[in-house]
Specification:
alpha+beta; globular; 7 helices; 30% strand; 3 domains
Length: 368
């Protein structure tokens, strides 16, 4: 049997070959294609390997085991989420970090797959009416308690909660969930609920723009990066860490603009010259060669002697690069720390975030 975790191109070719070996099949199986490759029932996305990364399986105690190494350029179907991981099916996972790019098909494509394969409409899990709206699949008391905690946090977000409170509580639940030893489908139901709550504050921008004093407007060259999260808490917006680098680059005059003919009077693109974050790996016990560790990511402003610091100690991002961590600074905080005299507007309808620097003009320019 061919494992469905094989690279998509091999699965597709083999499936095509097997179709010619089935003379008893009178009706071709209905198929839906996404960027030229078949979208399978149950598939929720795909990942492209950008850098060598490990294919993992989890032992009964919840610890990951490396099965083999996946190479750059390979593409795999994704069938499920696990906190911090993408599921390739068959119990195999890949860590969700900057080594991979994750993409999702449109809702229209997913609905086509459902209809073409005669699958039932997606339904929410049945609910225990007398158990605080807990799905029937969650049987254990500890599982129910975790679910209720997630449910309560979700409601707190909707009513209004600070990013600090939300993140701290979600970290606490994450570590409980990580240690939880429960059977399927309970584990999956809890993981799905965790991801729902985790994604609650997330927002996306169709475009991010910078406007200078001379009226020229530039689009963030990285405004479509897949990794990381933009978030909103009340009226405060927290950008992906990659986008902090562009604002930092403007403050430090370490950016490039490239002129290009773009619509809406946009002059071109803007991007930082190099990655700006410095990262320190801090070990818990320097006397222990096997000591655990965490990361401290920094952006330092020498003009003001201030830093943007992302300390991952005690969070679920302890071992993550800066691109995967949550940014703890609102846009207003960033302006203040970096000494930027700036304003911003957020067009919710168009999903456009625009920064305006009334006293700055483009300094480093390249024309293509």
């Amino acid at each position: 049997m061919i494992s469905r975790i094989k690279p998509i191109i091999y699965v597709f070719v083999l499936a095509l070959g097997f179709s010619f070996l089935s003379p008893l099949v009178n009706k071709a199986e209905a198929k839906v294609y996404w960027d030229g490759v078949e979208l399978k029932p149950g598939q929720i996305g795909r990942l492209t390997v950008l850098k060598k990364t490990s294919l993992l399986k989890f032992k009964n105690d919840g610890s990951p085991v490396v099965v083999r190494t996946l190479n750059p350029g390979q593409v795999y179907r994704i069938y499920e989420f696990k906190p911090g991981y993408l599921g390739l099916g068959g119990g195999y996972y890949v860590k969700r970090d900057s080594s991979v790019k994750y993409e999702t098909p449109s809702k229209t494509k997913l609905e086509q797959v459902r209809k073409e394969n005669g699958l039932p409409s997606p339904q929410k899990p049945p609910i225990n009416q007398n158990s605080g709206n807990i799905p029937y699949g969650i049987k254990t008391n500890i599982g129910k308690n975790v679910y209720l905690e997630l449910q309560a946090l979700e409601k707190r977000y909707e009513k209004g909660i600070t990013r600090e409170e939300f993140s701290a509580k979600l970290d606490s639940i994450y570590f409980k969930l990580k240690e939880l030893k429960v059977a399927e489908p309970e584990k999956s139901l809890l993981n799905v609920k965790f991801m729902d709550v985790n994604n609650k504050p997330n927002i996306t921008f169709n475009h991010m723009l910078v406007k200078f004093a001379n009226g020229e407007r530039f689009i963030f060259a990285q405004d479509n990066v897949m990794v990381g999260f933009n978030q909103i808490f009340g009226d405060k917006i927290y950008l992906k860490t990659q986008y902090l680098q562009t604002l930092y680059a403007i403050a430090m005059n370490r950016y490039s603009v490239s002129y290009s003919k773009l619509p809406s009077g946009i002059s071109g693109y803007i991007q930082p010259d190099i990655p700006m974050f410095s990262t320190e790996k801090v070990y818990i016990d320097y006397n222990d060669i096997n000591s655990d560790y965490y990361y401290v990511h920094k952006l330092f402003n020498p003009l003001y002697g201030k830093e943007l610091i992302i300390n991952t100690k005690g969070t679920r991002f302890e071992h993550e690069s800066y691109v995967m961590t949550w940014n703890p600074y609102s846009i207003e905080d960033v302006f203040q720390i970096l000494g930027l005299e700036a304003q911003y507007t957020y067009d919710k309808k168009q999903k456009i975030l625009e920064f305006y620097f009334p006293k700055l003009n483009p300094q480093t320019t390249y024309k293509y």
